[in-house]
Amino acid sequence: MQLMIQTFHKYSGNEGDRFTLSKPELKELLVTELGNYLGNAQDKEAVDKVMGDLDSNNDGEVDFTEFIILVGALTVACNDFFQDQKDKQEKKKEKRLQ
Ligand SMILES: [Ca+2]
Ligand SMILES: [Ca+2]
């Protein structure tokens, strides 16, 4: 959690309000921190979409509460992915044993 707060503030302080992420700040955070996970984060439409999804009060900035929702969603997505992989591996193992 500490890491999330540090990451948020590393980018939120670049311009405008120090405690919220503007679109360019959000983009930089996504590309730099999550580039490996979001292969198309460079894509302007993808950034627009993430921004639109996160900015629940539509003020054009992502505050920390809104940011935590992204982190939560990504954590769930990763968890589902690894759970899927594990299930597949276990199924393979079962097949081999039969
Ligand atoms: Ca800012
Ligand atoms: Ca907002």
**What is the element string, with H for helices and E for strands?**
HEHHEH
Query: Strand share of the residues?
Result: under 5%
Bound small molecules, by name, code or SMILES, are: calcium ion
Helix content: 55-70%
InterPro entries: EF-hand-dom_pair (IPR011992), EF_Hand_1_Ca_BS (IPR018247), EF_hand_dom (IPR002048), S-100_dom (IPR034325), S100/CaBP7/8-like_CS (IPR001751), S100_Ca-bd_sub (IPR013787)
Pfam families: S_100 (PF01023)
Keywords: Calcium, Metal-binding, Repeat
GO molecular function: calcium ion binding; calcium-dependent protein binding; transition metal ion binding
Structure commentary:
This is Protein S100. The chain is mainly alpha-helical and 98 residues long. It has one domain (2-97): EF-hand (Recoverin, domain 1). It is built from four helices and two strands, in the order αβααβα. The chain has helices at 2-12, 23-34, 44-54, 64-97; strands at 20-21, 62-63. The protein has a two-stranded antiparallel ribbon with strand order 1-2. Helix 1 (2-12) crosses helix 2. The longest helix has 34 residues, at 64-97. The chain is elongated and about 60 Å long. It binds calcium ion (2 copies). One calcium ion is lined by residues 12, 14-18, 20-22, 25.
